[in-house]
Write a structure and sequence with these properties.
- The structure is a single chain.
- The chain is mostly helical.
- The chain folds into 2 domains: 27-153, Tetratricopeptide repeat domain (Serine Threonine Protein Phosphatase 5, Tetratricopeptide repeat, Alpha Horseshoe); 165-219, no CATH class.
- It contains 11 helices and no strands.
- It has helices at residues 3-37, 41-53, 60-72, 76-87, 92-108, 112-125, 130-145, 147-154, 165-179, 183-196, 204-219.
- Helix 4 (76-87) runs antiparallel to helix 5 (92-108) and helix 5 packs antiparallel against helix 6.
Length: 220
Amino acid sequence: MSPAFTTFLFILLIIPNSWKEIGERNKALREAERAFKTADFENSVRQHLALSTEFGMDDPALRFNLALSYQNNGQEEEAGKNYETLIRSRDSKIASFAANQSGVLAGNDREYKQALNYFKTSLIRNPDNEVARYNYELLSRWLEENEDEQEQDESEDQDKMEPSNYAKRMKAQADAMVDQFRFEQALDIMNRALEIDETVAYYEGFINHLNDVKEINQQQ
């Protein structure tokens, strides 16, 4: 067999693998987009995480969709982490959107002065962001009229970790399974939720109890 023919065979063996990887990546992109557009935010979180962990994709637009999915799935803390990263993005529009959303999260937590700073940052990154401008002007006027209330809120302890709304929702679903004596299904709900939301660990005692029940049932 001549060297030229050997090289030709070697190339034929490599190219299909590349096509397969490209096809799998494109399929993952379509699934993530479909989950996001249909407001299946829990699945959107999983699909967008897969784009990062399995395909090494870290496009700012994809990360912003992941952050929005986290936010709409009740995982505000994870959403905030991703927005913080995006605020420093070279893409000024994405950075502005991320700063605005960070302001919304801060406002929902009654951290109004921090929220105002985020809206200001959003406008600095993109002065044409009219949503951020509206939020900034509205909150600025509210703070002027409610200065005493804001000072009282700032004196309260904000450091206590709490489960996200998503974690609470998953706990409620698991409780429903327990009421039906479906302990393994309840454990599966909590473990799957823990994969994408660390605040689910707030229910560590409940999860450990479900594990104990599972082990007991397996010994019967």
